[in-house]
Amino acid sequence: MDVSSQMLTFVRVVEAGSISAASRSSGQTPSALSKQISHLEDHVGYRLLHRTRAGISLTEDGQPFYEKCRAVAEKVQEAEELVLAFGAAPKGQLRVATSVAFGKAQLIPALPRFLELYPDIKISLELTDRHVDLEAEKFDAAISYAEQLTHPDVMTRRIMKNERVICAAPSFIARYGAPNSFEDLENFNCLRTSNGIGRNAWRAEYEGVTHNVNASGNFEGNSGNAVYMAALAGLGIARLSTYLVADKIASGELVRLFPWYTQQHADVAVNFPAKRNLAPKIRVFIDYLAAQFQKG
């Protein structure tokens, strides 16, 4: 058996917790597995495992070697999944995370058609405004603002043009009036987001000049959706995405303040692991979102 096969065997033994457990899952005898590990140890020149009656544990040298072997095993698994997917319809569970506001207003209404097109895919959706670690939490895709992407091992594809706008309910404006300038927002009750770094530092551009205001007020919500509902209720002035409030502004339920100011850099993107060969279920989901939401 070659060294690469022995490395995969090594990973299976470590993750099974014992040679006997790995034997039961692999269909090989314990002596055969033990011999493969011994050959691998001879090849690398140091002991990889402590063997006891209770099972096995990694040696100090074995730990970093296991991590490298594990990375190889993951690549092999990806290749196997790709080969199995050739010629087959996309299928399997698709784990997706998105913000509460985007999920309720945009994504969920778009899912029926997607699931009609791909009946063998099952969606597991988490609505959350917290930061999501795709790799650590085993998500297949996460939808967020493109500006939030900072991880080098994550790919992104913009799926929707979006702008943040300042707005308030007519009932709030009737009681308290409207600010005369962007800076005048400091004198009004502004609705804050409680769990987003930088989300309460409002900025806008007009004729090449950037204006900044630190939103402050007597209400904050842990999601954009909570702030949206508070704005509709007349609690204060909010900064919200156009995908969420455009219809309410058109109907008059919300009034856009300072429409001549622009607040860009808020496009919506789908993020996914930076793997060379994406599973078909992820690829068709990304393509569907782009076709569904991109305009222009």
Could you explain how this protein is built, in words?
There is one protein chain. With 296 residues, the protein is of the alpha/beta class. It folds into 3 domains: 3-85, Arc Repressor Mutant, subunit A, CATH 1.10.10; 92-156 and 268-293, D-Maltodextrin-Binding Protein, domain 2 (3-Layer(aba) Sandwich), CATH 3.40.190.10; 164-257, Periplasmic binding protein-like II (D-Maltodextrin-Binding Protein, domain 2). Helices cover 42% and strands 23% of the residues. It contains 10 helices and 14 strands. The protein has helices at residues 3-16, 19-26, 30-44, 62-85, 100-117, 134-137, 170-176, 224-232, 242-251, 280-293; strands at residues 49-52, 55-58, 92-98, 121-127, 141-145, 154-160, 164-168, 192-193, 201-206, 209-214, 220-221, 238-241, 255-257, 268-273. It has a 5-stranded mixed beta sheet, with helices on one face. A 3-stranded antiparallel beta sheet has the order 12-7-13. Strands 1-2 form a two-stranded antiparallel sheet. Strand 3 (92-98), helix 5 (100-117) and strand 4 form a beta-alpha-beta unit. Helix 1 packs across helix 4. The radius of gyration is 26 Å and the shape is elongated. The termini are far apart. The mean pLDDT is 86.
